[in-house]
Amino acid sequence: MDRLFITILNMSFTGAFVIVTICLVRLLLKKAPTTLSYSLWAVAGIRLLFPFSIESIWSLIPFQAQPIPMHTAAPLVSDPASLTAGASLTNNWIAIGGFIWLAGAASMLVYGIASYSVLKYKLRKSLHQQKNIYE
User: Fold this and answer.
1) Which residues contact 88 (CB under 8 A, 6 or more apart)?
2) For residues 82 and 88, what is the distance between their CA atoms, to the nearest angstrom?
3) Rounded to the nearest 5°, which phi and psi values hold at 129?
């Protein structure tokens, strides 16, 4: 789970950089067509969804694709005494961060399902008036 959490954390860092860049570019392109804005946000969505990046000398991301190296988490060993204090502390923080992330993802999933259920319940008695118009 530690490797999964570090991978997701790395994707989030680079995704956050892409999102900040898009927000700054959108300030400059206020009068541009909305399709351009949607395509910019599609780039951010793709960056957050796919765990790899295409590296080139013309990259828009000015840092390495993995700000946190995968070997940050110390490997599991049979003798806990052989772990250094720093590696043990790092493993603890990574495990705690992973569980917090997992709890947040689970709570967002429950919230999404509950919101959908409430909306569906409220709209069950709506009447179809015209094409895509309900009352």
Assistant:
1) 74, 80
2) 10
3) -95, -55
Alpha carbon distance 24, 13 (integer Å): 17
CA distance 74 to 57: 32
Q: What is the pLDDT along the chain (135 residues), one digit of tens a residue?
A: 677 777 777 777 777 888 888 888 888 888 888 888 888 888 888 877 776 666 666 665 555 555 565 555 544 444 455 555 555 667 778 788 888 888 999 999 999 999 999 999 988 888 888 888 888
Amino acid at the residue 84: T
Which residues sit opposite 133 in a β-bridge? 130
CB-CB neighbours of 33 under 10 Å: 9
